[in-house]
């Protein structure tokens, strides 16, 4: 039988609530391990299983409600910010919207079991116009199901967890070195990347009015439309002369060749310009320094009443105007892929 005294898994209700709340708020803490341990402690009589479920439920609801209210206030910006922390923001944003559009609030019942989905679903539910009471009802059921699953597994396999706990005690320092240091390094790296993006935004922004004035005067720009990242796949309008591309491919897979003296302007629909900033930082690392981010994105461009089009530039049109090439590693990019601009 699992003995909480000998294996030193001292978990209080407050500790469990704090861990679950922090995990659902976005802090990289393995809350499932704490639930497993809490379930095992319940079997040993050190914790009340109903209190374990109740505390975990309150932790989930508290964090999810904060994200829900953030989604109601700031809308799609919150969803895009959360997606931007994933390895592939475009894929993450597309997946969560597809799941929610298909299942609606019912997706909350299982979203916590799916990596990358649980944290984005609450603000997405708000942006989709869900009522707070309905959201809380579905989220409560999903949170209870998630909590009961892992606490229940800990309860059922308490003896196995005891052996694991004993091994962890013997090899704790090794595990701290192997797991803890890479995790800390990853968190610091993400903070550093975010700092680079924010600094780039401050230094390399161009207003819609200024960009339009330069375009009218005949100044040459390559304008890259990143709206494939956005959550409205039916949206087709963009800036005349722009070429639409997937930002994830621009950041990771493609080699970009820009003629000397040609400016590059990136835009997405987000007013916080995170998708554009990520691509701008990646292009700067590859030696392309004359990259600008459209301040306020496509939304700001339209608010200024500037012209839009549904006919973005094609590959052949750009070949005739600009010398930009984007060369990738798949069949689609086996030949040079130009980006459109404005001459």
How are the elements arranged and paired?
Blueprint: H1 4-7, H2 13-25, H3 31-44, H4 49-74, H5 76-84, H6 89-103, H7 121-127, H8 132-156, H9 158-170, H10 172-203, E1 205-206, H11 208-216, E2 221-225, E3 243-244, H12 247-252, E4 255-257, E5 263-267, H13 274-285, E6 291-294, H14 297-303, H15 315-321, E7 325-327, E8 341-342
Parallel strand pairs: 1-6, 2-3, 2-5, 5-6
Antiparallel strand pairs: 2-8, 4-7
Helix pairs in contact: 2-3, 2-4, 3-8, 4-5, 4-7, 4-8, 5-6, 10-13
Run of helices and strands:
HHHHHHHHHHEHEEHEEHEHHEE
Strand content: 5-15%
Mean pLDDT, all residues: 77
Detail the poorly predicted runs. Answer: 1-9, 230-234, 329-343
Taking all Cα atoms into account, the compactness measure Rg is 24 Å
Helix content: 55-70%
Task: Give the overall form.
Answer: elongated
Structural category is: alpha/beta
User: Number of helical segments?
Assistant: 15
Strand count, sense and barrel status of the largest sheet are: 6 strands, mixed
Number of domains: 2
Distance between the termini: 76 Å
> Care to count the β-strands?
8
Key attributes of the depicted protein:
single chain; 343 residues; alpha/beta; Oxidized Rhodanese, domain 1; 2 domains; two-stranded antiparallel ribbon; 58% helix; disordered N terminus; disordered C terminus
Question: How would you concisely characterize the structure shown here?
Answer:
With 343 residues, the chain is of the alpha/beta class. The protein has two domains: 4-170, no CATH class; 204-342, Oxidized Rhodanese, domain 1, CATH 3.40.250.10. It is built from 15 helices and eight strands.
């Amino acid at each position: 039988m699992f003995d909480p005294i000998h294996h030193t898994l001292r978990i209080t209700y407050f500790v469990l609530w704090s861990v679950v709340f922090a995990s659902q708020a976005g802090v990289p803490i393995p809350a499932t391990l704490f639930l497993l341990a809490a379930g095992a402690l319940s079997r040993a009589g050190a914790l009340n299983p109903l209190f374990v479920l109740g505390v975990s439920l309150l932790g989930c609801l508290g964090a999810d409600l904060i994200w829900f209210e953030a989604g109601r206030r700031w809308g799609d910006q919150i969803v895009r910010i959360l997606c931007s922390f994933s390895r592939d923001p475009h894929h993450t944003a597309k997946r969560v919207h597809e799941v929610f559009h298909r299942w609606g609030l019912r997706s909350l019942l299982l979203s916590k079991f799916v990596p990358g989905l649980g944290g984005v679903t609450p603000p997405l539910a708000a942006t989709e116009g869900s009522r707070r009471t309905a959201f809380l009802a579905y989220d409560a059921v999903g949170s209870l199901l998630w909590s009961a699953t892992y606490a229940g597994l800990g309860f059922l396999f308490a003896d196995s967890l005891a052996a694991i706990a004993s091994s962890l005690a013997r090899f704790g320092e090794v595990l701290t070195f192997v797991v803890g240091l890479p995790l800390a390094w990853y968190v610091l790296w993400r903070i550093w990347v975010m700092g680079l993006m924010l600094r780039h935004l401050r230094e390399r922004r161009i207003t819609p009015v200024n960009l339009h004035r330069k375009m009218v005067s005949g100044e040459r720009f390559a304008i890259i439309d990143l709206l494939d990242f956005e959550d409205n796949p039916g949206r087709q309008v963009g800036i005349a002369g722009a070429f639409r591309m997937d930002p994830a491919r621009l950041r990771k897979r493609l080699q970009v060749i820009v003629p000397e003296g040609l400016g590059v302007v990136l835009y997405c629909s987000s007013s916080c310009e995170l998708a554009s900033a990520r691509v701008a930082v990646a292009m700067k690392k590859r030696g392309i320094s004359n990259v600008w981010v459209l301040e306020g994105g496509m939304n700001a461009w339209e608010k200024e009443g500037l012209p839009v089009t549904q006919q973005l530039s094609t590959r052949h049109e750009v070949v005739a105007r600009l010398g930009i090439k984007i060369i990738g590693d798949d069949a689609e990019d086996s030949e040079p892929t130009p980006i459109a601009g404005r001459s």
